[in-house]
Design goal:
Helices cover about 10% and strands about 55% of the residues. It is mainly beta. The protein has one domain (about 30-179). The strands form two sheets. Strands 2-3-4-5-7-8-9 form a seven-stranded antiparallel sheet, with no helix packed on it. A hairpin with a 2-residue loop joins strand 8 and strand 9 (about 175-179). The protein starts with a helix and ends with a strand. Mean pLDDT is about 85; it is low at about 15-20.
């Protein structure tokens, strides 16, 4: 008797949400299921920073890169990205007075590599072909040499933490723009 009463109570609790779906045409729903799989994309951006207190580190310029994403679960996407940029930096000559010590800017090649964990806010679906997300990345920044710099300044490898927020706008099932 208790099992029947519990089953009836469970049915009463489940019935109202199920009734809300009756008569709803799935083809007219604003939600579309994301296809599980892999995505490869190209990115272009502008890196802007200050280069440290005196501007000696690379800090301004265009970047371009490739990104590989894997939709691991409906709400989680794992990604890897590699980018390259020719960034501006200043040369600081410590043998000169501070007023005349800074020259440049000069270009310096910089490579960014990172792993990204992205949380899709609409789960495994798009809403009106839009899929908003928040993400976080962790990676390395590697700088090339600057032949014009005769000082002993070395950029060395740096760690990078990259938080992000944005949306993917789907033009087709496997083609989207990311903002």
């Amino acid at each position: 008797m208790r099992l029947r009463a519990f089953s009836l109570l469970a049915l009463l609790l489940v019935a109202p949400p199920a009734a809300a779906q009756v008569g709803h045409d799935p083809t007219s729903s604003p939600y579309r299921t994301l296809r599980y799989g892999q995505f490869v994309g190209a990115s272009v951006g502008y890196f802007n920073g200050v280069g440290g207190q005196i501007g000696a580190a690379p800090h301004k310029g265009m970047t371009a890169g490739l990104r590989y994403d894997f939709l691991a679960a409906g709400t989680i996407t794992l990604g890897f990205q590699g980018s390259y940029g020719s960034l501006d930096r200043f040369i600081i000559d410590p043998s000169k007075p501070i007023e005349t010590a800074r020259s440049g800017p000069v270009p310096q090649s910089v490579t960014f590599v990172e792993g990204i964990l992205q949380f899709n806010l609409t789960g495994g679906k798009t809403w009106n072909r839009i899929a908003p997300f928040v993400s976080g990345g962790f990676g390395l920044v590697l700088a090339g040499s600057t032949p014009q710099d005769t000082t002993e300044f070395k950029f060395r490898t740096k760690l990078a933490i990259t938080p992000g927020i944005g949306a993917r706008i789907f033009l087709a099932d496997r083609l989207y723009l990311k903002v």
